[in-house]
Structure formats: structure tokens, C-alpha cells
């Protein structure tokens, strides 16, 4: 009996020794402005813009934090926190992001804040997880910088809705082509002097000719979607109102199935599309029918990501946080004390 007990104890001790100590995955913390980190962040921004169905394209402003984890059996996962800024390009606009203008502080800028995980495998980046929100600059900051600058107005305000209706009616009355229907009101501001309402809105062409429309309800969107983007100002005056509207109509965009893209499949990067924006537009999906929160002044990025993608590795091992090793740059003497990493990175435009 003693011999059997001794053998059992030895077996247990051997089993304990066979379990490696500290099996948690370790991460490294590269420079936030490292070229590889920036590549991962730019891939993330492309992913965001390809999945935003309303509002405006966003552009990278700053990388706040980065951790890089080994992913079994191969590849690395970049865990990123980034700040973005809203541009003046609507998401339906085929203009490449690099050619889009960043909306300035005096125009009541909007900032995005995103947490992402980006997989690098075989030199390619793909997004595993994305969580974003966005918010306009505070009214106090805008007025401190520019006391006379108009602030963002609620998109469902009766004056805003009226201005868009008048502007779209005026545009269709001047059109010799298709009758256009409203897709969304994208932005609005109340201008004090002269007292007016400024609006930006997206439209879509229908199968009706503008000059022949008698009942807009009978008009249907084209099978191959054709979108446009309008800017208008409705000015109040004694005895009436004046409207000035300009619209840019984009080239027809084929819509296979008009289905929302699978969020688990990375969308094609604009870098892989032909360079000429007049010929090919971005991949556009059907706009959701669910109403967005009322009394909002901008489209919050949080509405673009309804679910969370899996971040499990190909081996089935879940991606998880481990203990960080000390990061030492080669041939550089390391002083005693905690290592300070060069994050957050540089601000590319301005801080909101």
C-alpha cells in the first residue's frame, strides 16, 4: 500500500511539473507612430468607412494606444485605440478618403473614438473587432473659437425638415433627368445672420422623370443605385423665403442583391479600387430601415457596429489578455524604472 501511495504522489508531482508556468499570451507595445502600427490603423479606418451607412467618412487623426499580441498558430493581433475626424465627404460619395477634406473646428467638427483589433497575417490586415462612437465638439469650445459660428442643429427639427423639403423640391424642379427622393438628412445648422437654415442631405434617383412626376409615392429607386449629395440654404425674408441648392450626382453604383455586407468579412479597401472616382464608386449597401434616435445632430458611429466579431484564433484558442513582458529596444540602454512607450502618437489634424 505504501508503494502505491508513493507512486501516486510521484505521478501528481510529475503532472505539476509538466504544466508550463506563465502560459498567458504576452504582448509588445510598439511606437504609436510606427509604420506598421499606422498600417493597421489605416486598415481599421477603411473598415469603419466601408460599414458606415449614414453620415460622413472619417479619417485617422491620432493613434492613442497599441498592443500587439501573438496569435496562434500564426499572425499578430493589433489592439488599437484611435481617434478619427469627420470629413466633408458623405459615405455615399465615391471620392477617395485621401482626397476628402477634414471638417474644421469652425464648422462644428465631429470626433470619433474607436477600439479595434486588427489581424496581420501574411502581410495583410483584417479587422476582427470594432467598437466606435462619435461626438461633436462642445458648443462652448466652438463659440470660444468663433462666437458667430453656427452650431449643429437637431436633424428632426421642423425647420430643418422644411428646409430640406423646399430644397429637394427646387432641385427636382430644375432637373431634366430622374426624380430624386430623400435618403437622409445628414447635417443642419441655424445661421443667425442672415437668419437661415443650412442643410446637407443625401438623395437617390428613381425610375420617374422629374418633369413628369405627379405622385412621388409611385416612384421606385433604380435597380442600380444612383445617389447624390446636396447642400442648401433656406433664407427667411419678409413675406417669404429664398432657397439656394446645389447637388452633386454620383455615377450609378451596381447593387448585387442590395444586402448588407457580412460584418465578419473584411470589405475591400479603396486602395484596391480603380483610381478614377468618376467611374467607380465605393461598395454601398442598402440603408437600414430601422429609425435612428430622434433629436440627434449627427450620425453616431456606434450605430455602424451592431455586433462583435469573434476574436478566436484559428487553433480555437481564445484571444485574451496576458502579462506584458518588458520591452527592450536592441542596442539601447534601459534605465531602471518603468518603461515609457511613445504613445499616444502624433495628432495629424487637430484635437477636439
Automatic annotation (TrEMBL):
Coiled coil: none
TM annotation in the entry: none
Hydrolase as UniProt keyword: no
Gene3D superfamilies: 3.10.450.10
Matching PROSITE patterns: CYSTATIN_FETUIN_A, FETUIN_1, FETUIN_2
Record CDD domains: CY
Family matches, as SMART domains: CY
Compartments, record wording: Secreted
Entry GO MF terms: cysteine-type endopeptidase inhibitor activity
Domain Cystatin fetuin-A-type: 27-133, 144-255
Signal peptide: 1-18
Gene Ontology biological-process annotations: acute-phase response; negative regulation of bone mineralization; ossification; positive regulation of phagocytosis; regulation of inflammatory response
GO CC annotation terms, alphabetical: blood microparticle; extracellular matrix; Golgi apparatus
Alphabetized SUPFAM superfamilies for the sequence: Cystatin/monellin
Entry keywords, A to Z: Disulfide bond, Glycoprotein, Phosphoprotein, Repeat, Secreted, Signal
Name assigned to this protein: Alpha-2-HS-glycoprotein
Naturally occurring in which organism (per UniProt): Mustela putorius furo (European domestic ferret)
Protein encoded by which gene: AHSG
Amino acid at each position: 500500500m505504501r508503494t502505491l501511495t508513493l507512486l501516486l504522489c510521484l505521478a501528481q508531482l510529475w503532472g505539476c511539473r509538466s504544466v508550463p508556468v506563465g502560459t498567458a499570451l504576452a504582448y509588445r507595445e510598439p511606437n504609436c507612430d510606427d509604420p506598421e502600427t499606422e498600417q493597421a490603423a489605416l486598415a481599421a479606418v477603411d473598415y469603419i468607412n466601408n460599414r458606415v451607412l449614414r453620415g460622413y467618412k472619417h479619417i485617422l487623426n491620432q493613434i492613442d494606444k497599441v498592443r500587439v499580441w501573438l496569435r496562434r498558430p500564426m499572425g499578430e493581433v493589433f489592439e488599437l485605440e484611435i481617434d478619427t475626424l469627420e470629413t466633408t465627404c458623405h459615405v455615399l460619395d465615391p471620392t477617395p478618403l485621401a482626397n476628402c477634406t477634414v471638417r474644421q473646428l469652425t464648422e462644428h467638427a465631429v470626433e470619433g473614438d474607436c477600439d479595434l483589433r486588427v489581424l496581420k497575417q501574411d502581410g495583410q490586415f483584417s479587422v476582427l473587432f470594432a467598437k466606435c462612437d462619435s461626438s461633436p465638439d462642445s458648443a462652448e469650445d466652438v463659440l470660444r473659437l468663433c462666437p458667430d459660428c453656427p452650431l449643429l442643429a437637431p436633424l428632426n427639427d421642423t425647420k430643418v425638415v422644411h428646409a430640406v423639403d423646399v430644397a429637394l423640391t427646387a432641385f427636382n424642379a430644375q432637373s431634366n433627368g430622374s426624380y430624386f427622393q430623400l435618403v437622409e438628412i445628414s447635417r443642419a445648422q441655424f445661421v443667425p445672420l442672415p437668419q437661415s437654415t443650412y442643410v446637407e442631405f443625401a438623395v437617390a434617383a428613381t425610375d420617374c422623370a422629374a418633369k413628369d412626376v405627379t405622385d412621388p409615392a409611385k416612384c421606385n429607386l433604380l435597380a442600380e443605385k444612383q445617389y447624390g449629395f446636396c447642400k442648401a440654404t433656406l433664407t427667411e425674408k419678409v413675406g417669404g423665403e429664398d432657397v439656394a441648392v446645389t447637388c452633386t450626382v454620383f455615377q450609378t453604383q451596381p447593387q448585387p442583391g442590395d444586402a448588407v455586407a457580412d460584418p465578419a468579412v473584411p470589405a475591400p479597401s479603396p486602395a484596391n479600387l480603380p483610381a478614377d472616382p468618376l467611374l467607380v464608386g465605393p461598395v454601398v449597401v442598402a440603408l437600414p430601415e430601422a429609425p435612428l434616435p430622434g433629436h440627434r445632430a449627427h450620425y453616431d458611429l456606434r450605430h455602424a457596429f451592431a455586433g462583435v466579431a469573434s476574436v478566436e484564433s484559428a487553433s480555437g484558442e481564445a484571444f485574451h489578455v496576458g502579462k506584458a513582458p518588458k520591452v527592450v529596444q536592441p542596442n539601447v540602454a534601459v534605465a531602471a524604472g518603468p518603461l515609457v512607450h511613445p504613445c499616444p502618437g502624433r495628432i495629424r489634424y487637430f484635437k477636439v
